[in-house]
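Changelog note: in this version the structure field was regenerated for every chain. One regenerated record is shown below for reference.
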Amino acid sequence: MITGKQFIDAVISAANNLNNNKESVNNLNVFPVPDGDTGTNMTMTITSAKSELSLLSEDTPIGVAADTAALAMLKGARGNSGVILSLLFRGFSKQFKGKTEVNAYEFAKGLELGVKNAYGAVRKPTEGTILTVARVASEKALRLARNGKTETEVMDAVIEAAAVTLADTPKMLPVLKQANVVDAGGRGLLHIFEGMGSVLKDGVIIETEEQSSAVTSEKADFGEFDTEDIKFAYCTELVIERGGKKDPADLNAFLQKHGDSIVFVPDDTIIKLHVHTNNPGKVIEEGLKFGSLINIKVENMKLQHTEKVIEEPKEEKAVEETAAEPVNDYGFVTVCAGEGLASIFKDLGADTVVEGGQTMNPSTDDLLKAVRQTPAKTVFILPNNKNIIMAAEQVAPIADRHVVVIPTKTIPQGISAMLGFDAAENEETNVESMTESLSKVRTANITFAARDSVFDGLEIKEGEYLGLIDGKVTFVETDLDKCFKETVGGIIDGGTGYVNVFYGNGASEDEAERLVGEVETNGAEVNIISGGQPVYYYIISAE
């Protein structure tokens, strides 16, 4: 029998094992654009459960432990892989409800229920993904459990079936075969099963690998200086895998001209740098000239300082987190990253803007809190990213008001949906018109390749400029100007009336105007707008 204590330890062990391997999972992502990486999203999801389970006593019934894990994962789910993982554990919650302990058959049934939950939540399930790995493992576990096998034997079967199926995923998905990798979500799930198996088979919790501990110091007084005293706003850190014969001293000289607080450590294989600058995009672009980027971190120090200085009393914070009274008929929650984009959505009527997007997928709980703070009876959520839609869809069953998800996959689609809303119409009419508006806008993005990849027949090198049209990598160039011209030209046709160009970090209004001036727009009206978005130099819409 599996007790509540064993289940708690198993989930904690699984979270630790995945955390130890999350970067190897992230490296399996085949999509070349910087995104919410699978390993990170799954780790953050299951770590939500680890935190809650750690608070339970050793005599907690397994039904209570499974409920706790499932609810925590549901709220903490990030990205499609995180949502699928939470749904798998919801199966355990349903099967174990009211039980003190469970046998091998009930464990296998719980996994089967989770698989059904996950397949039911995905509009078009694709084989060769985490879904397939979970399904085959579940089927084998159930067969053995029905034949009287023990909990240990069933767990062994789950791990073995998951590993074999994972190895076969390239045969099921051409994109995996082309990139010569297995499915990232499936690999993450295997690490979770292995972590659980370590407890259920051997009674051993896999520990998190040791991280260097920070030295305890006195708390700094951030109120001693003003935010405006920060000359360079962005703390930028890069680790570069050296390539070519360029002299690292040239990169150091570049940094000296573009920032301060510089730490520059070159060796034979990598360059590690830290700089405070007002233009992290230029630092990243310059770094790419010296090799491949292994790690990037950019933080807004002015924002961090403001948050440190402003410490609200607990009473005020409690008021802030209290659900808003639903006084309006309709309200909007939208997701975006970038001060300019947030202002646009606010101007269009959005009540709450959740910061997030391509590399920072908000959790279901983030979206739930935003819904609760929206003073409306019916709240529309605009995810504006395909990897956030599933997390948004989990909000409706647990919200304290009516929630409708409009499946916007891009920022321009979100803006178009807002423009398609009419307060004088009923919900059904608005859902229809807002959803219909999505097909009337085309979206293009200019960004950089986060990793080497062979994708959709294109051989892509890390750092190259990518032009995406409606989510598809269409142009790959080493020159940003050429990539811009090709991409914009690719979404404009004779019927295009309006073109919006949102420039983000690493771009400027002057540069955007110059590029637009060199593109044939077929008479379309062009607006150039500051979006302030990370990752994408430009987001372009055509209607």
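Spot check on this record: Residues 211-229, 304-320 have pLDDT under 50 and may be disordered. The domain at 223-307 is CATH 3.30.70 (Alpha-Beta Plaits).
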